[in-house]
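Notes from the 1:1 (GR / supervisor)

We went over the backlog. Supervisor wanted to see one worked example end to end before approving the batch request, so GR pasted a single chain during the call. The sequence is below; no edits were made to it. Supervisor asked that the structure be written out right there so they could see what the output format looks like.
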Amino acid sequence: MAWEYAVRVALVLAATGGEVTTAKPRASGPEPEDVVVWYHLRIYLRVVRALISREKPLGSSDRREDATGSAKLALVSIERSRSALQSLRSAANDVEISGLMALLDALERGLDERFPNARSFLRIGLDCHAA
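Structure output shown during the call:
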């Protein structure tokens, strides 16, 4: 499902004239298209890493932490992407954007089911200060 989202983002942006490339930094910050482009493959990569890390032996706490942390990063990426997609929604692209948002919703539900502790996972240096 994460791969389908990544491919569909590329197709939707290509169809609307947007480029699926690395955006150049702006003083005003990223545009919604930049946010969607930035996260579309990162969501896929983090979901895959979370699922693979989860399959490691149960005694491996590092692997469980990696899986939960990767799931958290995927969830944060999904939230930011959803917000950016909402900003991009127009009458002309409502069907495409709605489809992408439905995929994000399904991905989010799947991550919440498989990684119930991901939302509360604290990333050192990001969610809390490094000691």
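Supervisor's comment: Residues 2-17+29-114 form a domain with the de novo design (two linked rop proteins) fold (CATH 1.20.1440).
Batch request approved.
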